[in-house]
Structure formats: structure tokens, C-alpha cells
Amino acid sequence: MITTVTLNASIDKAYRMTQKVEYGTVMRVAETHNSAGGKGLNVARVVKLCGSDTKAAGLVGGYNGQYLESLLDADGISYEFEHIEGETRSCINILDPEYGSTEYLEPGCQVTPEEEAAFLERFPDLIRDSDVVTISGSAPRGMGSDIYKKMIRIVKDEGKKVILDTSGEYLEKGIESMPTMVKPNQDEIELLFHIKVRSREDVIEYAKKIYEKGIPYVVISLGGDGALLVCEKGIYQGRPPKIEVVNTVGCGDSMVGAFAVGLERHMEPEEALKFAVAVASANALSPLTGTFDTAKRDEIIKNVEIIKLSDPERE
Ligand SMILES: Nc1ncnc2c1ncn2[C@@H]1O[C@H](COP(=O)(O)OP(=O)(O)OP(=O)(O)O)[C@@H](O)[C@H]1O
Ligand SMILES: O=P(O)(O)OC[C@@]1(O)O[C@H](CO)[C@@H](O)[C@@H]1O
């Protein structure tokens, strides 16, 4: 069982435009799609598509919160949310032929210290029957920047594996509790180390710095170039074949979902990397967020290249 945690859940609205977006004009949307969003809910859909049991946890509130639960019912995903006073946010992804995807992310409502404390108190029960827990995305306003650090400590005290996918201070503090895996992208590495990444060597160097802090699996997603994995067995790159991308929103979440399944099934690191790259690339072929066609994943996986870049013990 994989529990996915989303503190800053959202009603994700995907707008498909048939014409290029022109600022300062009226734009009519050709098609809309609403989904239960916030990174962890995309992870939950991907885990389910991979054939593993999943439960979504986190915070929801207001009419949007109720709507989000009904969307999860329609997706057949079970959930146990802490209900809060504030209204669950919306995030908009505009897909147009010129620019591809442009996202507008609301910050999320205000959470009170009492609501945060109630969630943390309930958290050990929420994860009791899980093998792997994923913690994804931003946190809504009012929550302490050490919230993920505290949650990771709880998951580890329960003897479970935990993947953290977040950015900024939440990532910096979360790393201090040494999650099983982190999955920053290049931008998140730059934010974490206050540097500008100039080459693939830089990415490897900073990934190793995170690994050396005691994180067993450090995955850096590289968009169309796939992902790097630093672990005890070495440093690997997983490279997808060239594909006709439709929508890359949720690719990182798809990668997290697939790695959670890999950890649950005790896959070897190279096998998990190959699987995760294929799932994430299949998500890029779908106009929807956090979903993919399993037949396309099975086609892509045949052409995912796994390259061993080095063996950390020898460096
Ligand atoms: N253009 C692409 N072609 C093929 N695969 C892609 C492409 N973009 C993303 N992917 C797949 O998705 C994975 C994650 O992508 P990316 O690095 O964009 O994640 P991210 O930045 O964390 O995403 P998110 O926008 O969800 O935060 C890649 O490792 C790759 O497998
Ligand atoms: O504000 P966060 O939590 O960092 O990101 C939210 C979000 O952009 O992430 C997902 C794509 O990864 C979308 O479902 C959602 O709208």
C-alpha cells in the first residue's frame, strides 16, 4: 500500500486552447478538464494505474474540497483527508499550440496551528498500513516550514519508506530527516544550493552532495533527458526515447508514483529508474495530468536506455 500526502490539494483545471494565447484579449477555451490535483493526487492516480493499492491523505476544505473528494470517488481512489476551514485552491494549466503549458498556481488557503496539530496527531494512523509514503508539493499558508521534516521523522519511526518531492525551505528542512528518496529537478537543485547549474557535471555534483547527507536514493529529473539516480550501487542516467510531447505537467509526479511502486516491489535501482522514466514519459503523451496509457508505457520502456555513469565508492 502506498499513501500519498498532499497538504496543498487543488482542483486542477486544464484549459485546451486552439489558438495562441494573446494577453489583454478575451480568450475562449476549447475544452476544459478538472481533476483532483496537487502533486500527491497525481501520484495516487499513477500508483493505481501501475496496479498498486493507494490511499490519498492530506488537507481539504470548503466546496472545492467536497468536489475534490467526488473527483477521487470517480477515479476510484480511496482517501482520508483532514477537513479544514479554508477553501481548497484551484490551479490552472493552459495548453496552447504556441507555448505548450502555462501554469497558474494559487498559493492555497490559510491553515491554523490547531489544524496543523490535528493533522500531525492523526498522521501515524494514516500511514499505519502503508509500505511507502510519498509527500509532494507545496504546503498551504500558515504551515511551518519544518512540517515535512516532522512528517518524515514519523514515517521513519514507523519503519516505512518515504519519498519527498518538494522545493525550497520544505526540501531543505525535509532532507534533515533523511527521507528514503528525494526527487528535485534542476530548478529545485538551484534553489536548494543557491547556485546556477551550468552542466550535467554540476547536476551530478549537487546530487552527490544530497546523497552524502544520508539520502539513499537521489533522483534528479531532467525533462526530455530523463533522470539521474545516485544510490549505493552507483550513478545512473535513465534516458527516454524521443517522443511527441503533449503535456508535461505531472511528469515529475508520475516519476514519483512509479518510484514508490518500485520501492514497494523491491525493484533493483536500475529497474526502478527504467520503469519510472517510462511511466513519466508516457504521462507526457497524455493531455491529462497524472495519467498515462499503460500500452504506451510498455512500448516506451523497451527503448529507455540505462547508462551507468560511475560508481560512487571509487571516487
Ligand atoms: N520532453 C520529454 N520527453 C520525454 N520524457 C519526458 C519529457 N519531459 C518529461 N519527461 C519524463 O518525465 C520525467 C520527469 O520530467 P521533469 O524533469 O519535467 O519533471 P519535473 O520538472 O519534476 O516535473 P513537474 O512539472 O511535474 O514538477 C522525465 O524524467 C522524463 O521521464
Ligand atoms: O504548488 P505545488 O503543490 O508545488 O504544485 C501544484 C501543481 O502544479 O503540481 C501539479 C503538477 O506537478 C499540479 O497538479 C498542481 O497544480
UniProtKB/TrEMBL annotation:
Q: What is this protein called?
A: Tagatose-6-phosphate kinase
Catalyzed reaction equations: D-tagatofuranose 6-phosphate + ATP = D-tagatofuranose 1,6-bisphosphate + ADP + H(+); beta-D-fructose 1-phosphate + ATP = beta-D-fructose 1,6-bisphosphate + ADP + H(+)
Q: From which lineage does this chain's organism come?
A: Bacteria, Bacillati, Bacillota, Clostridia, Lachnospirales
Per the record's keyword annotation, is DNA damage included, yes or no?
A: no
What UniProt keywords are attached to this protein's entry? ATP-binding, Kinase, Lactose metabolism, Nucleotide-binding, Transferase
Q: Name the GO cellular-component terms.
A: cytosol
**Pathway noted in the entry:** Carbohydrate metabolism; D-tagatose 6-phosphate degradation; D-glyceraldehyde 3-phosphate and glycerone phosphate from D-tagatose 6-phosphate: step 1/2
Its biological purpose is as follows: Catalyzes the ATP-dependent phosphorylation of fructose-l-phosphate to fructose-l,6-bisphosphate.
Instruction: Provide the species name.
Output: Anaerostipes caccae (strain DSM 14662 / CCUG 47493 / JCM 13470 / NCIMB 13811 / L1-92)
Q: What is its EC number?
A: 2.7.1.144
Gene Ontology MF terms: 1-phosphofructokinase activity; ATP binding; tagatose-6-phosphate kinase activity
Q: In this protein, which residues make up the domain named Carbohydrate kinase PfkB?
A: 7-291
